[in-house]
Specification:
Distance between the termini: 53 Å
Low-confidence stretches: none
Oligomer: single chain
Largest sheet: 5 strands, mixed
Order of helices and strands: HHHEEHEHHEEEEHEEEEHEHEEH
Helix content: 25-40%
Shape: elongated
Strand order of the largest sheet: 4-3-5-14-6
Length: 299
């Protein structure tokens, strides 16, 4: 019995959180999976799982082995795909993390269009506004809407975007149009707590460091779409990605202000753990997204 088979059995058991559940999921017997894991422990000379009739948990060694073994098996699968790269047989499953903002906005259509274009590839899209750990949680790719900072991850910018500060015409009529970002500190603002800077809004400054402004108001909410609705109701000024705010600005339902101070280094990125053995299916997706945004000019 080879080590990779035992390794796969162990990972299946951990991810299913038990031998019985893993056996049902992969169609093997519980006794066989238990045998593989026991042989793996014997081979390593270490206990990986604490198991009783009622409890199941990983030992410290088991947790470490799970993380590293998961990476190894992904590399093995990716290597197979790299070797097959010369063929046009692009298929399989891609596990993607994306923020809800991306999927719910009009630009989320890009993922639907990709599925229609590549019927042999299945997208397993997990919507989560937190920054997931791609390696530990087993993601092939993440879509991130941000200003990229130093990272061990590989990031390809697939589209730029600007951040718009805007408010309803009714509120503008009451407050006037702010001429400087600092004025927002005394005006009602709606804070999208998904923004990493939360209520410290950052602005471009042509003559020096970025301008930081502390804002506050009647609502803080972790959804740019909900923040947009609050702004449409006249509740305050809001900072939104332009791909969300643009339709309302174009229709006059929202008024954009301080455009000359908008941060210019934000983008939509495709992020993946490393370049080595990048699966052909993931490269196809990344290239497709870059072309989709170029052709559709949504941002």
């Amino acid at each position: 019995m080879d080590t990779l088979t035992r390794m796969r059995a162990y990972i299946d058991v951990v991810e299913a959180e038990g031998f019985s559940a893993a056996a049902r999921k992969i169609g093997r017997s519980k006794a066989l999976l238990s045998k593989y894991v026991r042989e793996l422990e014997d081979e390593l000379g270490a206990l990986l799982l604490n198991r009783t009739t009622r409890q199941f948990s990983l030992t410290e060694a088991g947790h470490t082995y799970y993380q590293r073994a998961s990476e190894i098996l992904r590399d093995v699968e990716n290597l197979k795909e790299t070797v097959r790269d010369s063929s046009s047989d692009i298929k399989g499953r891609i596990k993607i993390s994306a923020p809800r903002t991306f999927a719910d906005a009009e630009i989320g259509q890009c993922l639907i269009d990709f599925c229609a274009d590549q019927p042999d590839i299945t997208l397993d899209v997990r919507l989560d506004d937190r920054f997931v750990d791609l390696v530990e949680e087993g993601f092939d790719l993440a879509i991130r809407i941000t200003r990229m900072q130093d990272s061990s991850l590989i990031a390809k910018r697939i589209a730029p975007f600007r951040v718009a500060v805007c408010a309803s015409p009714e509120l503008i009529q009451q407050t006037g149009i702010p001429k400087r970002p600092e004025q927002l500190g005394t005006l009602p603002c709606i804070v999208d707590t998904n923004n990493r800077s939360r209520n410290t809004w950052q602005f471009h400054n042509q003559s020096g460091p970025a301008i930081s402004v502390q804002v506050s108001g009647a609502m803080e909410i972790n959804s740019p779409l909900a923040a947009r609705r609050a702004a449409l109701s006249g509740l305050g000024f809001v900072m939104l990605p332009d791909f969300i705010a643009a339709p309302d600005i174009e229709s006059g339902r929202l008024v954009s202000v301080l455009e000359e101070f908008a941060m210019r280094d934000a983008g939509i990125y495709a992020v993946y753990p490393h370049r080595r053995y990048l699966p052909a299916k993931v490269r196809v997706l990344v290239d497709y997204l870059a072309k989709w945004f170029k052709d559709n000019r949504k941002v």
